[in-house]
UDP-N-acetylmuramoyl-L-alanyl-D-glutamate--2,6-diaminopimelate ligase (Tardibacter chloracetimidivorans), 471 residues
Amino acid sequence: MRLGELIGGESGPEVTGFAIDHRKIAPGNIFGAFRGTRANGEDFIPDAVRAGAVAVVARPEARVTGAAHVADPEPRRAFARLAARYYAPFPTTVAAVTGTNGKTSTVELARQLWRLAGHRAASIGTLGVTTADDQVSTGLTTPDVATFLMNMAGLRREGISHAAFEASSHGLAQYRIEGLPVLAAAFTNLSRDHLDYHETMEAYLAAKLRLFSEVVDSDGTAVIWADDPVSSQVIDAARARGLKVMTVGESGEALRLASRTTALLGQTLQVEADGRAHSVNLPLIGAYQAANALVAAALVIATGGDVAQTLGDLARVQPVRGRLERAALTKTCAPVYVDYAHTPDGLKAALEALRPHASERLILVFGAGGDRDKGKRPEMGRVAADFADRVIVTDDNPRTEDAAAIRADVLAGVPDAVEIGGRREAIAAAIAEAGARDVVLIAGKGHEQGQIVGDRVLPFDDVTVARECAA
Ligand SMILES: CC(=O)N[C@H]1[C@@H](OP(=O)(O)OP(=O)(O)OC[C@H]2O[C@@H](n3ccc(=O)[nH]c3=O)[C@H](O)[C@@H]2O)O[C@H](CO)[C@@H](O)[C@@H]1O[C@H](C)C(=O)N[C@@H](C)C(=O)N[C@H](CCC(=O)O)C(=O)O
Ligand SMILES: Nc1ncnc2c1ncn2[C@@H]1O[C@H](COP(=O)(O)OP(=O)(O)OP(=O)(O)O)[C@@H](O)[C@H]1O
Ligand SMILES: N[C@H](CCC[C@H](N)C(=O)O)C(=O)O
Ligand SMILES: [Mg+2]
């Protein structure tokens, strides 16, 4: 494709791709020069042009010489739109999920439900790009818009027709997930996270609402978990845009969760949909997984799935990696679960999910990540104090912070906890003391494969370590 076909004017040079980092510019690329939290991309325009950029998308005030200047007051959005025209076509049925917790689980369950209905489906998010045959990790939930659109186009070339992606608040605020048609968008919940970046809960919610007010197609569907304190604000935003609205949950209308009965390895849900009652056997435990499963089902229904078949297929879903994953049994036969809870609300949800499974103590091992919202640390401590019986505070990706200082922030909310910095030692201690009637929860890292200390990633997998300690 020639530059002129994308930005108008003379045909110009051949465009070879898009990049937002000047170090990744190859000859013929279009460079997106954005002002960020650590750097100003506009400072790298001369370097990008020297490296062969044929056009630069930047604010009108930016100085561009030696390449075309695509000037736009919102350059990230303009860049996303151009990149989407370049990388198209994409899978024909695309759905997005936002919310503080449950995005990864919901996109992954939607992918499985589409597949069970016979479609070639994929999910994109924290676990990477997942298809029936493959899982490729990308590092971030949404790396950058060029990579995102390239991945989507790649899926289409592989014959994928249905794709669900995670819309993180960072991704939405930075226009990292834009430009392609999105038929349905879902909201799971909102609670404290990422205030280091968004600063206030209002700004955090506003970032998420963009999915409904701008990103999803104007004739698309909003699937909204109805039992959250801010659900009505999301419903209002969706209605204001003229979207079809499907609400899900105990107070939902499209899929109404009438009751939930816990079993050892799963649960039975009574769901009302289309005026009929459906009994759903879900092979996942916990209220939070029931919520994610129903939101996923609603997305599948919103994109053409049959109601009874979709709800019936929930009986055949596989667990999501690192979400209440049953990792091991201790020598006393206490189950050890690994979960990705890394917010106060997520931790509460994971502990509540396991409470019915512990006839005696719930033993919790957790920490909090460095270079992330500091205010959530004592709140997570307080949740641990309130909902677990025994707490070991340990390290979880200290990044560039002092690990002991992070633990102290967490311990402020749970002063009775035991402090064991080394994550392996902490897991070993929990497993060693668990009795037959206890349950162990290792929270915070889920599927993660490394402990980030400084700028190094030390190999670490909670599930593997739990198995080694239990053996
Ligand atoms: C706070 C945040 O989201 N930062 C992300 C964001 O950075 P930014 O726009 O602020 O960029 P910056 O580093 O200030 O640089 C500004 C611009 O100059 C460019 N640049 C910079 C340096 C240089 O030498 N050359 C150059 O061209 C950069 O590519 C960028 O476009 O865009 C960068 C490029 O895509 C990301 O790498 C970076 O992710 C950082 C590493 C990060 O840790 N992000 C996390 C918090 C994140 O985004 N997480 C969410 C998930 C959260 C969740 O689900 O819980 C995610 O979607 O993954
Ligand atoms: N619907 C929910 N309600 C409350 N907590 C939840 C819900 N879904 C997931 N959680 C908690 O959040 C954790 C992370 O779940 P998941 O990975 O699906 O969320 P996410 O939104 O993708 O997270 P991230 O923002 O890190 O990408 C789970 O392990 C669980 O502890
Ligand atoms: N993707 C999220 C969750 C990370 C979970 C936890 N392990 C941490 O490092 O804080 C983030 O980057 O904030
Ligand atoms: Mg995720």
The mean pLDDT is 96. Residues 287-302 form the longest helix (16 residues). The first strand starts at residue 17 and ends at 19. Residues 20-23, 34, 36-39, 41, 44, 140-142, 144, 168, 170-171, 174, 197 surround UAG (ligand 1) (CB under 6 Å).
